[in-house]
Amino acid sequence: MSQLHVSAAPHIHSGNTTSKVMRDVIIALLPAAIASVVLFGMKSLILIAACMISCVACEWIFNKAAGKKCTCGDLSAAVTGLLLALNLSTNVPVWQCVVGSAFAIIIVKCMFGGIGRNIVNPAIAARVFMLVAFSEVAGGAACVLTDATTSATPLETLAPGAEGLPTLMEMFLGMHGGTIGETCAAALLIGFVYLLVRKVIRCHVPVVFVGTVFVCALVYSGFDVVYAVQQVLAGGLLLGAIFMATDYVTAPVNLRGRIVFAVGCGLITFVIREFCAYPEGVSFSILFMNLLTPLIEEWTDKEPLGGI
Amino acid sequence: MLFKKNISSLHVPHNKNTASCAPVQISAPKEVVLPMNMQSGHDAEPVVSVGDHVYVGQLVAREEGRNSSPIHASVSGIVKEIAPIKLAGGKTVMAITIENDGKMEADPEMKAPTVTNLDEFLDAVRASGVVGLGGAAFPVWAKLDAVRRNEIETILVNGAECEPYITSDHRMMVDYSDLVAKGVKLMQEHMNVPKIVIAIENNKQDAIDKLGEIFKNDPGVEIYPLETVYPQGAKQVLLYNVTGKVVKGGQRMAALGVLIINVSSVAKLAQYIETGMPLVDRIVTVDGTAVKEPKNLLVPIGTPVSHLLSEVEMKSEPGKILIGGPMLGHAITELDDPVIKATNAILAFEEKDSVELEPTACIRCGRCMANCPVGLNIVAVGRAMNIQDEDARAERLTQLGLKQCIECACCSYVCPAQRPVLSKNLEAKRFLRAYNAAKKEEGGK
Question: Does A50 fall in a domain?
Fold first, then answer.
């Protein structure tokens, strides 16, 4: 008989792998990616391709240079690229995409130790970096489907009872200005359902995050439901809540911690949107809560069954 | 309980391919090897010498020390050797090898013990050599003995058998339901326990029906169908799911008024009290992806694994052979290793199912924690193991409640990074045990 294998228990495995998880995230983002091409034209496709290719390339180059095993196959760099692209507007030139991707992968992810070790979400950090470094990211671009000339996101004019906003249906379908992936709520929700069905994420973080913003808006506006719904649909809230606040690496690992994290994200988002100079606060809120993650985990630690 | 929290569990593929295979008597092995450490406590002490003739069921090693258990000859023949052998895992242990004369002659002087009261009952259980046959191998008498010191309200008879492939307990409940029933009645009669619950996963409907029929008029016995999830049969999980009780750190289950005993153990102790034949054989499931025609075999204890494998038709050359189930069993390299009292399955896996998975970086997805039956903060345990200072590391591990880990392997099973999470937890537990032992010794000086 040939040599028998010996290994520690268990001897069977669920068959789930990191690349399968990441592949599911990419699939979940496809509706939003397709919607971005429909809503903002072929320029979206160029952005997506530029970001995804440069993210994967950067990871490959870094791994080679650092003499590490290539981790491109786990698809996490591709996810980062796709998320980053969906967070940009069509005004952004390709070279900026490359710079942003390099920042996301090399500075934010690989320098901290690669997959699983980064402190903040690479796509969000890169978006904020680009927001500060290049003026083209902010404000968004005009949707090609409507004849509106304004390229501004509805958030800039959004206030209780404000006029000149797209209708709720237009907002739900994404026919308004903004970054290419954030506007189409319908597509994002399809992706959300897919992630839930595939058990990639649980519903708590997105629901609590969006719910917190909704309740804050409701209370702030004196129970103006339309305004609260507009707060949810305008800007990057759904994209951030479904795809970026649920990032495993940079959010608390326990459920209680994740809920605290989501409440924090919601509160900060609303405060920035309403009271600060920036019209959008989703990226900043997630970035900030990413930094608090180790503390939140400590606060929300609970005893196992049977005590300690 | 008003707000009964659900215990996390997994839907692992059952692969109970042998669920309808009644146990078949295995052909006589040439020799049997009886290791002295077949029970979880102290090693037994040989009472025979090389060259002695022994009958089936004759005592060959007596109980020695704490939580030990006697060992009986499983075949008739001549004691060939009493020498240390090396078992899977590298442990060396004294073992008695008996050359089988093929007659399977029972001791002519064997007679059923007289059991009329609790003392006689416990003595009989002690003499029967029955240990936890589900894998724990804790001597049953030592467990039942708790009835003298605690108010036991419930005995949980564990027929969950949640590990994939294994149907040893299942077939015991179906094919030997009379023995199971007899054992339950004996415990009821002598231990004065108001309630006996036989808990069975609902993928064994035939066992539920059969035992349900036997006990339908007995208010003291309840058949409790369990959801089929892993690790339903783990004692902490079973206790919680049936009674809602939780064993707190440092507590014994008996203090809660509950005892959990494996269903095959119940049947075997009944067999001894009925006939005087102690634990000398057991049902072993032989299955796995490399096995073409899986079987349940009735095997004399001490039979080499190779003999079991020769009784089934193989599909291909196995790449890995396990003693026990695929979640908790251990891989062996030597096919001469014997079936011991707690061996409920021998599984042979094809080469492609045997290759160890390549671990990648932890992505902090939290699946290990979300699927942990006791809700241990596994990610924090991993992080704590990186603490250089031993005192700080031990303090953190204690604070995390590491000792509550039931070692069910759900964490490793679900990990998408295919990391050996359970092995890491076990390493942490070993460290903590050694650390505490060293501290205790230091304090004692």
Answer: yes
Please choose, from the candidates B414, B297, B305, B432, the residue with its C-alpha nearest in 3D space to the C-alpha of residue B366: B414
pTM above 0.95?
no
At A78 the three-state DSSP class reads helix
Interface of A with B in 104-123 (CB under 8 A): 114-117
Total domains in chain A come to: 2
- A178-233 confidence digits (pLDDT tens): 889 999 999 999 999 999 999 999 999 999 999 999 999 999 999 999 999 999 99
Tell me if B148 sits within 8 A of B254, measured CB to CB.
no
Q: Give the ipTM of the model, two decimals please.
A: 0.91
Distance of CA B211 to the CA centre of its chain: 22
**What sign for the dihedral angle of Cα A126, A131, A132, A135?**
positive
- How far away is chain A from the Cα of B310, in angstroms, using its nearest Cα? 13
Indicate if the alpha-carbon torsion angle A244, A248, A249, A252 is positive or negative. positive
Spatial contact of B130 and B138, defined as CB atoms under 8 Å apart? no
B118-275: CATH class: alpha beta
- DSSP for B244-265? ---PPTT--GGGGTEEEEEHHH
Q: Please indicate whether, in this complex, the C-beta atoms of B363 and A9 are within 8 angstroms of each other.
A: no
Asked if residue B372 lies in contact with residue B230, where contact means CB atoms within 8 angstroms, the answer is no
Q: Are strands B92-100 and B31-35 parallel, antiparallel or unpaired?
A: antiparallel
**Residue A174 domain flag:** no
Could you tell me the residue range of the domain that residue A100 belongs to? 18-133
Q: How far is B78 from chain A (nearest CA, A)?
A: 30
Spell out the domain ranges in chain B: 118-275, 367-444
